[in-house]
Input
Amino acid sequence: MHESPEVLKILAAELIDRVKVHGATEADVMVAEGDSLSVQVRLAAVDRLSKAREKSLGIRVFFGKRSASASTSDFSESSLKQLVTDTCALAKAVAEDETSGLPEQAAMATDVPDLDLYDPTTMPVEEAIDVAQRAERAALDVDPRVTNSEGAECDSAYGAVVLANTHGFLGYHRSSRFSLSVAPVVEGPDDQGMQRDYWYTVSRKRHELEGPESIGRIAAERTLRRLGARKVGTQRVPVIFDPETAGSVLGHLASAVSGYSLYKGASFLLGQLGKPIASQHVNVEDNGCLPGKLGSRPFDGEGLPTRKTMILEQGVLANYLLDTYSGRKLGMTSTGNASRSIGDNPTVSPSNLFFHPGEESPDEIIQSVTQGLYVTELIGFGVNVVTGDYSRGASGFWIENGELAYPVEEVTISGNLKQMFQDIESIGNDLVFRGKLASPTIRIREMMVGGH
Output
């Protein structure tokens, strides 16, 4: 049975009082609980089913500039007493860190806005199985060449978090998440081999999930179009990233503007604040306050209000993403992007990070290319955030005279992230939020495509 918000708040406040008795100068406590259900079916049979209910608690204590963190999932009185004693003893024993400490009291969130992140609708196991089976069946029914499946998965999760600290902050919020995905396998004639692809839907709200039949059909169509994939010769050409793969480019930007990468000198954007690093029409926003979005929350992992932060403004690097610790290291203030797991120190994470959409449709962007590559999948991790060097395996479609001519696989695309951002020529109007990172279609002026 779920604890009431008041029970969790009282527990967090009591622990704050206990660490003060031990002489801690500052402390915070995070309590989290959640339920999750995950069902995977393959060829109509239930392949995997897991249900979990978790409750855990983490404390972070400071004795001056010394600190330690610990966590437990045992909420018994003896366990909590031992947790407080052990964590305080550990904190006293570690070396001082002049940068450590809670955020300034004046910076704490003073209200907790309702961002519409929670749907109380339950998803029974039978319903999750049925939804997954329908999605897979719809994929298999599209075409006789859809002969197999890597499965369909339907998941739901509900969570609640309480954060309290010695500044008097006490915040609570709930969230939910529902998702459905399917990965069909297509077998073509002998010379075309086998292909797999997938499609998915994810939302905070159960009723906002796309229908299983639609997800199955799109997954099958995405897989079928890959049949007969070829390699291409090595050449420099325009490259278009579809929204899914363009999101990964945003992920590399997020790493490069993270305060931790910057103060360690491990970012190709070091010293670039206030300078143009991308085309003038490129705007990238991080916004933790967007109602209903998957990266939204009313306060961050330190109790600071989440907010809108422009990362790129008309191509200029306007802000980094910071928590309190990395901000202090850089002589700056937090951007409300602290993220943490129970029992861990905060780190930096984007909330909802996205390219502002442009005016052109994806079709118009493809039509603007005489010869080039349209990327629908990226493979491997050949990205160096320190230098910006970029090299990844890719598959997608070759563009001839403004049309997708044939599928392409086993190619490598390479360049440098600095140049790639400067070379963003077009941004599509097809922005859809399917996660914390969201992008429309983007066209990059030129990259090296390596084939046979």
